[in-house]
Amino acid sequence: MEKLGFLLRPKWLVLAAVALAFAFLCFSVLAPWQLGKNTSTSARNDLITRSVDADPVPISDILTANGFPADDEWRRVIATGSYDVDSEALVRLRSIREQPAYEVITPFEIDGGPTVLVNRGYVLPVEGTRPPDFAPAPTGQVTLNARVRQAEGTSREPIEEDGHLQVYNINPEQIGAAVGVDAIDGYLQLDDDQPGGLGLIELPQTDAGPYLSYGLQWLAFGIMAPLGLAYFVRAEIRERRLSRAEMADAMSGEPDPAPDNEPVPDEEEEFTLPTRREKRARARAASRPTVPSDPRLADRYGKNR
Questions:
Q1: pLDDT at residue 255 tops 80
Q2: Among the four residues 54, 116, 134, 216, which has the most C-beta atoms within 10 Å?
Q3: Contact call for residues 107 and 83 (beta carbons, < 8 A)
Q4: Taking the CB of residue 184, how many other CB atoms lie within 10 A of it?
């Protein structure tokens, strides 16, 4: 089994920590964030779609002691009562068709019931950021067609500016405390052509948005991070194996040094067996008597005769 001791080196420890931390963030934070937004957007779109085809109902049919149920958001209701024209607030930092705007909030006392905040619509600022003059809410008893909305969270404290109480969120508890009314949780958003209505705030688009695909992408990134780490570890192991194999081949391929008294054979010379003719020639040469080198012996044997 391949030793993985090199993984304890600082470089590999940092790489492993980064990959695992990124995968953890993908699975625990980034993917749930996008998938949660997709779930909430889908639920909102379903409520809007159902409210479009539903007939408006009296507000008393869905009103509870704690305000409006979450499942009834965007539902169309009919409410009869009167505006509290002296207790108004503007919601700043709103965007309508990509333009900065103010939304006008006026308390509305329901006949025989509690007080609810009404979003009368929007107005566009003048001279940069100053709220414009706008029509006040009508006095006396009126009947409104509106949609139920859930309260927004609070972010910053209300301020007094340009002669108006200005807030950053539509929160009935915060606005009610600022203007001196006891408003129920949730608020109403006026439909088109209603008493006291200003610029109509249109319904949001009911497309699901890119949140699901973003969530799946973060899940894929979370899977790819440890797989990428495993790929680099495997590549490092393979490289180390190749390096050791090349070193072993280099060491085993060196020739042994030849002794000083023995000639080194020529590796390129090819060895062949002698033929029959060569064998017979060698045998005849071996059977001949050796001619003496002494001249007297040669004369004795008749060589010089």
A1: no
A2: 116
A3: yes
A4: 21
Q: Is 73 helix (H, G, I), strand (E, B) or coil?
A: coil
Whole-angstrom distance, CA of residue 157 vs CA of residue 147: 26
The pLDDT tens digits of the residues spanning 29-48 come to: 998 999 888 888 888 788 88
Q: What is the DSSP letter of 28?
A: I
Q: Is 197 helix (H, G, I), strand (E, B) or coil?
A: coil
| Residue range 72-117, pLDDT digits in tens | 899 999 999 999 999 999 999 999 988 999 999 999 999 988 999 9
Rounded (10°) CA dihedral 243, 249, 254, 256: 130
Q: Tell me, what's the pLDDT at 168?
A: 95
Three-class DSSP labels, 106-125: EEEEECCCCEEEEEEEEECC
* Sequence-ordered alpha helix ranges (H) in 74-196: 172-179
* Cα–Cα distance measured from residue 42 to residue 244, given in angstroms and rounded to the nearest whole number: 58
Element (H, E) at 39: helix 31-53
Q: Which two tokens stand for residue 302?
A: 């008749």
Q: For residue 245, how many other CB atoms are within 10 A of its CB?
A: 10
What is the value of pTM for the model shown?
0.64
* Beta strands 115-123; 183-190: pairing state: parallel
Between the alpha carbon of residue 232 and those of residues 13, 20, 30, 165, 245, the distances in Å are 13, 14, 25, 61, 20
